[in-house]
């Protein structure tokens, strides 16, 4: 009799680890993004690998990420459709984001930021960016989780002459990524021609274009130092991509799990920012070692770039039917009025 009474207890003891294991089974979430799985060549991959580790650590293994670099799950718009329709994550570029929130182009107004601190404050604290986050959630059911740096600020390169001011662009031909870049070059007296990234090296080598703009990381990644002599550090645009996640998935997690996941995102992004900023000078030094001449425009020259480049880009934005309110919010968040006041105060002090 005693044995028969023990059988259910033994059975329950044997079954309980299986039930516990099932209850704690990890949720695997796909994370897709562009670029090679090489942290030295792809800042987004460095972010993704940090995020993979931190998510598993902070959620106690309840959430595990599966990484898909090199656009393995499709190109930009295809990946965005996937994250809208399934429980997944994606690091999107402007090409992926703009069909849903074209207002994101406002964040790429040239010469908007002086340095990393300015750019990070704009995205972390600004009213404009909060509105874009809200729009993305409302229109596409996505949460905008992080702004992921991909290599610092864009710089001009060319193989004809040193460029220190807008006047130096006269008559040059530049590779453009999109029509907004064409508008910028034309404002400086140059011309812009769309060339895919995969054809940029050959286009520069054969003279289809004299120059292009990208952050130092991409100049190295594309071996553009082999076909470009001059590098102008003009802080043109902050180079970034955007981590987005399926809102239904994230909202469906319990509060503790969601909080742990968001903490992992924040920490991974903080690490990526420090890593990225620490690499910028090293990359510029490398390009100098390869024979590129580095030009660092002074404040007066940077002002000249901004005064010509920004109006041309703003005109382009108006042609895209971007609501002026977004532009006003972004300029205010970037502190342009304040910067102007500080400059005027400085001018009066010098007199």
Automatic annotation (TrEMBL):
GO molecular-function terms, A-Z: carbohydrate binding
One biological process term in Gene Ontology: transmembrane transport
Gene3D superfamilies per the UniProt record, alphabetical: Bacterial extracellular solute-binding protein, family 7
Keyword Signal recorded: yes
Keywords: Receptor, Signal
Residues making up the signal peptide according to the UniProt record: 1-25
Name used for this protein in its record: Tripartite ATP-independent transporter solute receptor, DctP family
């Amino acid at each position: 009799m005693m044995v028969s009474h023990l059988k259910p207890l033994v059975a329950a003891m044997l079954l309980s680890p299986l039930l516990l294991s099932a209850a704690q089974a990890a949720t695997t979430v796909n994370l897709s993004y562009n670029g090679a799985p090489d942290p030295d060549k792809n800042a987004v991959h460095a972010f993704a690998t940090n995020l993979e580790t931190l998510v598993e650590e902070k959620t106690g293994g309840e959430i595990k990420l599966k990484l898909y670099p090199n656009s393995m799950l499709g190109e930009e718009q295809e990946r965005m459709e996937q994250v809208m329709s399934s429980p997944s994550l994606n690091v999107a570029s402007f090409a992926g984001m703009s069909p849903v929130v074209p207002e994101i182009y406002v964040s790429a107004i040239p010469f908007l930021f002086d340095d990393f601190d300015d750019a990070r404050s704009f995205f972390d604290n600004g009213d404009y960016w909060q509105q874009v986050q809200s729009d993305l959630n409302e229109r596409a059911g996505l949460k905008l989780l992080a702004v992921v740096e991909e290599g610092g600020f864009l710089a001009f390169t060319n193989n004809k002459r040193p460029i220190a001011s807008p006047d130096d662009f006269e008559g040059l031909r530049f590779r453009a990524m999109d029509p907004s870049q064409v508008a910028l070059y034309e404002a400086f007296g140059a011309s812009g021609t769309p060339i895919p990234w995969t054809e940029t090296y050959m286009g520069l080598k054969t003279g289809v274009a004299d120059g292009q703009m990208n952050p130092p990381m991409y100049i190295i990644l594309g071996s553009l130092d082999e076909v470009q002599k001059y590098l102008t550090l003009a802080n043109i645009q902050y180079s970034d991509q955007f981590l987005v996640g399926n809102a239904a998935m994230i909202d469906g997690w319990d509060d503790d799990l969601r909080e742990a996941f968001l903490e992992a995102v924040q920490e991974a992004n903080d690490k990526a920012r420090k890593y990225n900023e620490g690499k910028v000078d090293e990359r510029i030094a490398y390009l100098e070692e390869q024979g590129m001449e580095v030009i660092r425009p002074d404040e007066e020259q940077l002002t000249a770039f901004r005064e010509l480049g920004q109006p041309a880009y703003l005109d382009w934005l108006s042609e895209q039917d971007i609501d002026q309110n977004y532009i006003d919010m972004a300029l205010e968040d970037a502190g342009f009025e304040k910067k102007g006041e500080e400059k005027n105060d400085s001018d009066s002090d010098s007199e």
